[in-house]
Amino acid sequence: MTAGNPFVKVENASRWFDVSGPWLERILKRRPPVLLKAVNGVTFTVEKGETLALVGESGCGKSTVARLLVGLYEPTEGNIEFDGQPLSRLRSRDGKTMRRRLQMIFQDPYASLNPRWRIARIIAEPLKVHRRMTPAERLERVDELLAQVGLSPADRNRYPHQFSGGQRQRISIARALAAGPEFLVCDEPTSALDVSVQAQVLNLMKRLQRELGLTYLFISHNLAVVHHMADRIAVMYLGKIVELAQRDELFNAPRHPYTRMLLSAIPDTSGMGKRRVAVGGEVPNPLKPPLGCPFHPRCPHARELCRAEVPALLPDDSTQVACHGIAQRWIAREDEPRRPRRHDH
């Protein structure tokens, strides 16, 4: 990585899906194509060794971003670079080294492991592809990886159905580490686990990050988990990033009305009477997104400008926010406590 360049750079990336239905029916009935803009003009960077968390409600495009970053999807528009190299090299003949450096931990440990393979074969598969090893060397490496994620080398002869959900996710992590990656995309890696097991897996991931110098893109809808894991946080809504900030800055002083809504939904266990942000409505149909700011139908501060123009992601102190109200400071004024009049009691 050259000095000054981010480890991962995503610039105006979009991914659209054609959901028009059978092509013959569309042609016969002369229907225009219907495009689902799952990710629409996303820009962010990830520095080496940090954890950038991507948060938002279900369907906002988080998992699509994850698949773009490991090459499972190609961007419809925009550019993605890894360590100064275009990610499009993943599909070229010389992209094998880049593929080794990028790995993914999937959400569901029950579905991401082949039920017919023993654990040794599951973890050794990346070694066959990316490393020149003898069978004995691969088996030794499998034992090392199992021990590294808190399992026993004796577990390599068992099948996935013989493990709990937390143990399966540890196996998924061991498989992701087998090729010696530098960047891990973690797509809600603990959402399918019991709360009691989540902390164990998260602490394992933080320990591995320190020991191996890993960089994470961590995707989650659980803000308590994100607070534990992230250095910076990007908030997505309807395919766009609406706020990007350092973790403590975002939790202590959220700017965007949608971020405030998400944070106000966290249960208050402090007894301090945390202020709630009431936001009505539901996420609009992504096939028919609203004009202007995508959040304006639910925003209590929306004005005519919000209904007409899409706000750009602009810096606001140390935070980046896509909000007309923040840019023009009317939200800050509306949120100020009202001064009591003389006749108020």
Provide the helix percentage.
Answer: 25-40%
Radius of gyration: 23 Å
Strand order of the largest sheet: 6-7-8-3-9-10-12-11
Largest sheet: 8 strands, mixed
Structural class, from secondary structure content? alpha/beta
Structure commentary:
The strands form 2 sheets. The protein has an 8-stranded mixed sheet, with helices on both faces. Helix 4 (119-130) crosses helix 5, helix 5 (135-148) packs across helix 6 and helix 6 packs parallel to helix 7 (195-212). It contains 13 helices and 12 strands. With 345 residues, it is an alpha/beta fold.
Descriptive terms for the model:
alpha/beta, 13 helices, 12 strands, four-stranded antiparallel sheet, eight-stranded mixed sheet, 345 residues
Give a short overview.
This protein is of the alpha/beta class. It contains 13 helices and 12 strands. It has an 8-stranded mixed sheet, with helices on both faces. Strands 2-1-4-5 form a 4-stranded antiparallel sheet, covered by helices on one side.
Topology:
Blueprint lengths: L7 E11 L4 H6 L6 E12 L4 E5 L6 H8 L7 E6 L2 E2 L9 H6 E4 L13 H12 L4 H14 L16 H14 L4 E5 L7 H18 L2 E5 L3 H7 L2 E6 L2 E7 H6 L4 H8 L39 H5 L5 E3 L2 E3 L2 H4 L2 H6 L10
Parallel strand pairs: 3-8, 3-9, 6-7, 7-8
Antiparallel strand pairs: 1-2, 1-4, 4-5, 9-10, 10-12, 11-12
Helix pairs in contact: 4-5, 4-6, 5-6, 6-7
